[in-house]
Automatic annotation (TrEMBL), chains A, B:
Keywords: DNA-binding, Transcription, Transcription regulation. SUPFAM superfamilies: Homeodomain-like, Tetracyclin repressor-like, C-terminal domain. Residues 31-50 bind DNA. GO terms for molecular function: DNA-binding transcription factor activity; transcription cis-regulatory region binding. This is TetR-family transcriptional regulator. It comes from the Bacteria.
Length: 228, 228
């Protein structure tokens, strides 16, 4: 294995390990020693890749942002259905992927955020802002194209979808049933007749029309010894 | 001032101080030394009232639960309007009251919860469960009394209201505009015609029909010297 490829693998293993521990124990409690031990990497290798816990947190948020971008990109001419589909994919991702979970938690946690801000973290890695911005743009487009019912505004639809998805994500940390998809399907079934009008609600699939593929399966921990 | 009254004041000051610091810095980072200093109380007095940080967190959650109970109680023959009103009062409380904010965060944080669980914290002080349970009972009653539209279930309404309120609370920690009331009013304006039928939506006030009184104003810090 080439030296460079080993380094990439080590780095990936450290990010996965950090995500799992931030997710389980929180940013403040998770220790660098536990992160390197879980990844099967020496503390020297950890220090080579991430000189501080803040930089490790930034790498987790960046990895989560990549996955979120994968969820929302490639939806050509996105419509309301793509918002439904992406919300299901996001909830599924939060259920199964510690990187996405830890990334959202770090992105939403004032403690970690303040640290990230101090380290020069830009708005591009604010996952909630990324998600909000995308929903907002798609719903605004749906409104311009006359997809929304006449007495409904893009603003109230965007806010409700963003708040509900955030609520499911947060409630899911206590009770995983919130992330099983059924509550989200019920939400869309409740909302759609109001948002697009009862006559057109049947054109949409509340349970999500695509995206049964699992979200980016990655090995949880690649043991690569102490190599950098 | 009687000795007992001084003790109550000291305890209240410590709970307010702890709430402010848990809210600002998080449970894991906030130190007992900072809590006693902020309350103007000696560390001996702090130790007398709260032998550990876990017990302090429990007291914050209990104080928040009292305020939540005050928000949802005393609504005779509660109807959907009382859910609207209580949701507005809750969001207003989260905006202005560090005890309520810290209580919800501690109640929702897996770290602090595990600690609380270990210390024998009962389900009665799980604020989200308390809130969910109340919304569920009122919406179920509304369904039994024929207040809901025929093609709407109590379950989907309860889930949506609980998820949206949670979403507003969490998003409000990053952007206070979520707690200003207007987004919640827009949510209810969007949801009501679907939930009760367009013809009856006008019977409800999306902005909340009562509860302009401020939520339980309490002094943020009572300086009582080192007395217990």
């Amino acid at each position: 294995m080439a030296r460079q490829m080993r380094a990439v693998r080590t780095r990936d293993a450290l990010v996965e390990s950090a995500a799992a521990l931030f997710d389980r124990d929180g940013f403040d409690v998770a220790s660098l020693a536990a992160v390197s031990a879980r990844a099967g990497v020496s503390s020297g290798a950890l220090n080579f890749h991430f000189p501080s816990k803040v930089e490790l947190a930034e790498a987790v948020v960046a990895a989560a942002a990549e996955r979120l971008v994968r969820i929302i990109r490639d939806r050509e001419a996105p419509t309301l259905q793509s918002v439904i589909d992406a919300s299901h994919e996001l909830v599924r991702g939060l259920r199964g992927d510690a990187v996405l979970r830890a990334g959202f938690a770090l992105s939403g946690c004032r403690r970690a955020r303040r640290r990230c801000d101090a380290a020069g973290d830009g708005p591009g890695t604010d996952l909630r802002r990324l998600w909000c911005g995308w929903v907002e743009s798609v719903v605004a487009r749906a409104e311009r194209e006359g997809q929304l019912a006449p007495d409904v505004t893009a603003e109230e639809v965007t806010e409700t979808v963003v708040a509900v998805a955030t609520g499911h994500a947060v409630l899911g940390t206590q009770d995983p049933r919130w992330l099983e998809g059924a509550p989200l399907t019920r939400f869309w079934a409740l909302l759609l007749p109001r948002v697009v009008g009862a006559a057109r609600a049947g054109l949409f699939v509340a349970a999500g029309a695509r995206g049964t593929e699992p979200l980016h399966p990655r090995p949880v921990a690649v043991t690569v010894g102490g190599e950098v």
